[in-house]
């Protein structure tokens, strides 16, 4: 019995009457002795410790001549596991050109996510600034893996203008989005292009090709599924999130924010309520990792409970403060006092200006 731990073999313990035991605990002449002929077991062991989560423990066939306790852990993972690598953009100053009603500030850092397996990569969202997309392409090249697909979560140019340069650099890549997201891109292309040029000037990539419609709601990386989930609302709609069950990860697009003031200036009070429903959808997936469309460069993608709770409470607090705020400055003061550690005040200022203007215009 050399090499076995005392807790793994207890010959003085006799099985209870009527139970079956695995071959590690099979008796031969006396309770607990080891039968030394290699055999396979399919019985459920009644003397081993309870199985760990995700382990069928002693219901599987295993060779007797391996130490039994080697099979108590989870099933072996693939040699090259699926992984999510997060690229975070620069934090640019805005606007590039002064414009009435647009405050000076910064535009929140935007993410692009590489989901990679042994040989393939799917990129989720494609950024928008020339220098960032160049750096993103360099990162993809350094992996030595094939970029098969670019998936766009929603219709905002900071998430998709990089499609053109990336397709030029990786000519075999296919870019896709859900059909109604593409229709929204077409409807808002001219307006967004004007806005983005105003905000970022020559630093932004010119509007170019759009994605192709995705057939179905599943993408694959080396055989592992990426599930596309349509949700009611984020900062805009239509919008989607991506659930990757093999690594318990949600790519949240702009439905969850990570220590960044959420963008509420592009939606209505009714749509803010729908956004709360989307947060519930993300929470029910029970992810261990959430990658937000906007986060600090040093943000923690594993602070799942904090991200969900703060995004939810922020929207609820904005809904509560919005009707009685004297003006946009008052709303900014209220929200910034409640969330002093959130970054990118410009997003809150823009949201407050638009929300108060819509409120007062409807009265």
3D structure, described in words:
The protein is an alpha/beta fold and 363 residues long. It is 30% helix and 17% strand. The protein contains eight helices and 13 strands. It has a six-stranded mixed sheet with strand order 1-4-5-6-7-8. Strands 9-10-11-12-13 form a five-stranded mixed sheet. Helix 5 (269-284) runs antiparallel to helix 6 (304-321) and helix 7 packs across helix 8. The radius of gyration is 27 Å and the shape is globular.
Tell me briefly what this model is.
30% of the residues lie in helices and 17% in strands. It is an alpha/beta fold.
Low-confidence stretches: 1-49, 51-78
Helix content: 25-40%
Q: What structural class do the secondary elements suggest?
A: alpha/beta
What order do the SSEs take from the amino end to the carboxyl end, as H and E?
EEEEEHEHHEHEEEEEHEHHH
Q: So what's the overall shape?
A: globular
Question: Can you count the beta strands?
Answer: 13
Roughly how many Å is the radius of gyration? 27 Å
Share of β-strand residues? 15-25%
Largest sheet geometry: 6 strands, mixed
Can you give the mean pLDDT?
84
Distance between the termini: 84 Å
Q: DSSP helix count?
A: 8
**Strands ordered across the widest β-sheet:** 1-4-5-6-7-8
Helix/strand layout:
Layout lengths: L82 E6 L4 E2 L10 E2 L4 E6 L3 E5 L5 H14 L2 E6 L5 H4 L2 H7 L4 E4 L1 H22 L11 E2 L4 E4 L2 E8 L7 E6 L4 E5 L15 H16 L4 E4 L11 H18 L6 H11 L6 H18 L1
Helix pairs in contact: 5-6, 7-8
């Amino acid at each position: 019995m050399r090499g076995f731990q005392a807790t793994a073999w207890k010959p003085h313990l006799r099985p209870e009457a009527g139970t079956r035991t695995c071959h590690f605990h099979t008796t031969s002449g006396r309770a607990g002795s080891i039968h030394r002929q290699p055999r396979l077991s399919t019985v459920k062991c009644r003397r081993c410790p309870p199985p760990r989560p995700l382990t069928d423990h002693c219901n599987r066939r295993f060779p007797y001549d391996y130490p039994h306790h080697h099979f108590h852990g989870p099933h072996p993972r693939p040699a090259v596991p699926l992984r999510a690598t997060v690229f975070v953009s620069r934090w640019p100053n805005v606007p590039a050109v002064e414009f009435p009603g647009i405050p000076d500030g910064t535009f929140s850092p935007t993410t692009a996510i590489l989901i990679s397996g042994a040989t393939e990569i799917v990129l989720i969202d494609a950024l928008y600034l020339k220098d960032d997309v160049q750096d993103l392409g360099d990162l993809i090249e350094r992996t030595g893996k094939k970029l098969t697909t670019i998936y766009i979560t929603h219709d905002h140019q900071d998430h998709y203008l990089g499609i053109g340069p990336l397709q030029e650099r990786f000519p075999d890549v296919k870019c896709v989005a859900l059909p109604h997201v593409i229709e929204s891109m077409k409807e808002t292309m001219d307006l967004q292009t004007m806005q983005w040029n105003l905000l970022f000037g020559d630093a932004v990539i010119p509007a170019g090709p759009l994605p192709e419609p995705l057939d179905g709601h599943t993408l694959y990386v080396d055989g592992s599924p990426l599930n596309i989930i349509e949700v009611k609302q984020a900062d805009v709609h239509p919008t989607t999130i991506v659930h990757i069950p093999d690594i318990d990860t949600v790519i949240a697009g702009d439905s969850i924010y990570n220590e960044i003031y959420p963008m509420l200036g592009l939606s209505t009070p009714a749509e803010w309520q729908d956004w709360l429903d989307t947060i519930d959808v993300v929470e029910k997936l029970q992810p261990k990792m959430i990658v937000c469309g906007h986060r600090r460069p040093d943000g923690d993608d594993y602070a799942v409970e904090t991200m969900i709770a703060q995004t939810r409470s922020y929207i609820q607090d904005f809904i509560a403060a919005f009707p009685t705020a004297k003006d946009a400055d008052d709303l900014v003061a209220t929200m910034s006092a409640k969330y002093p550690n959130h970054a990118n005040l410009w997003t809150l200022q823009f949201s407050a200006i638009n929300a108060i203007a819509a409120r007062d215009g409807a009265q």
